[in-house]
Amino acid sequence: MKEDLIAPCGMNCNLCSAYRFRENDLNKQGFHKSYCLGCIPRGKNCTHLNNWCELLGKGKIRFCFECDKYPCKRLKALDKRYREKYHMSMIDNLNYIRENGIERFLIKEEIKWRCPKCGGTICCHNGLCLNCSFHTLLQNKKYRWNEE
Q: pLDDT tens digits, residue range 79-124?
């Protein structure tokens, strides 16, 4: 995993469905989803919080934990949604980065989100590895974690 795929809000863009779809070029397989390169590579400071935070909007901080208001109300709301629906926490990610550094975080994420079948990357939005579980997504395009 790459450092520039960790957004200031703590989102690991490498796990995002829009990034994974782009990596696997799934629109050629009948999907119609916007592709994404990640916040930092796209020149965005954070897709989720950019419009609400002046420090992020102007690129004055690299990560939200550098702000005096961390974690802000909007980040808490976003984190709650991601914990409940997508099995990840942006605040946990940011706390880990602050305490252990980005390099250790990237190693931890690589292990945590590695597909046990093929070694690919599991998508946080649906819980699938789009390399070897693509057939599940073809059968149910709105598939979410362990839904049949």
A: 999 999 999 999 999 999 999 999 999 999 999 999 999 999 999 9
In angstroms, rounded to a whole number, what is the distance separating the alpha carbons of residues 118 and 111? 13
Q: Which two tokens stand for residue 20?
A: 């994974």
The answer to whether position 144 is within a domain reads no
Amino acid at 139: Q
In a domain, 145, yes or no: no
pTM of the full structure = 0.89
What residues make up the domain containing 91? 3-139
Number of domains in the chain: 1
Q: What is the pLDDT of residues 25-75, one digit of tens each?
A: 888 888 888 888 887 777 766 666 667 788 887 788 899 999 999 999 999
Indicate whether 133 belongs to any domain: yes
Q: Check if the beta carbon of residue 34 is closer than 8 Å to that of residue 144.
A: no
Q: What amino acid occupies position 117?
A: K
